[in-house]
Amino acid sequence: MSKFTPPEFPDNSFVKASGSGTTGCVSVSIQPGGVGVRDSKEHSGPVLAFTEHEWDVFVASVKAGEFDRH
What we know:
Elements: E1 15-16, E2 26-31, E3 34-39, E4 48-50, H1 52-63
Antiparallel strand pairs: 1-2, 2-3, 3-4
């Protein structure tokens, strides 16, 4: 398995969910070679980086309800 080297995530590339309101949420930056996720209230905070495949699996799992509380 090769080591994942995340791409750069420019500050202006992050998008916050339109339904997140003022309480905060996560912001996402999709770049060639990876996806960055950060706290929308902490612009200078850490960025979690995922491969495109990891992100696709996560989004599919959310859509399938795998994280719903029962």
